[in-house]
């Protein structure tokens, strides 16, 4: 599957234990997101557009209104990368 560079970075951080926190607007749609790494840093590559593409492809999911995390399909779709630490 063809995944962009920004989607790849976000999926990689989520696979390492990160999460995407979101806020809903008055109409119930997601209006603001913040992607956190497992260390608590904010990932700037995660925009609302990237979030929607990952959600549409079912690479991320949320259970019981908790933050979005990587799904099993997302883990298998992400390419292996060296840890950047």
TL;DR?
The chain is of the alpha+beta class and 85 residues long.
Judged by helices, strands and strand pairing, the structural class is alpha+beta
| Tally of strands | 4
Helix share, percent: 25-40%
Summed up, the helix count is 3
Rg on CA atoms, Å: 12 Å
The structural domain count equals: 1
Q: Mean of the pLDDT scores?
A: 90
The end-to-end distance, rounded to whole angstroms, is 27 Å
Biggest β-sheet description: 2 strands, antiparallel
Q: Strand arrangement, largest sheet?
A: 1-2
N-to-C SSE string, H for helix and E for strand: HEEHEEH
Shape: globular
**Stretches where pLDDT falls below 50 for ≥5 residues?**
none
Strand content: 15-25%
Any overview of this molecule?
This protein has 85 residues and is an alpha+beta fold. The chain has three helices and four strands. The protein has helices at 5-15, 48-56, 72-77; strands at residues 19-24, 30-36, 60-61, 69-70. α1 (5-15) packs across α2 (48-56). The chain is globular. InterPro entries: YjhX_toxin.
Q: SSE layout and pairings?
A:
Elements: H1 5-15, E1 19-24, E2 30-36, H2 48-56, E3 60-61, E4 69-70, H3 72-77
Antiparallel strand pairs: 1-2, 3-4
Family: Belongs to the UPF0386 family.
InterPro entries: YjhX_toxin (IPR018654)
Protein name: UPF0386 protein ROA7450_02666
Name the features:
alpha+beta; two-stranded antiparallel ribbon; 3 helices
């Amino acid at each position: 599957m063809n995944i962009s560079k920004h989607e790849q970075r976000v999926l990689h951080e989520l696979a390492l234990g990160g999460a995407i926190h979101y806020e809903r607007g008055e109409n119930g749609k997601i209006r603001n997101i913040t992607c956190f790494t497992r260390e608590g840093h904010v990932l700037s590559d995660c925009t609302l557009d990237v979030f929607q593409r990952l959600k549409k492809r079912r690479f991320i999911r949320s259970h019981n209104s908790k933050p979005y995390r990587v799904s099993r399909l997302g883990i298998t779709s992400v390419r292996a990368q060296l840890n950047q630490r």
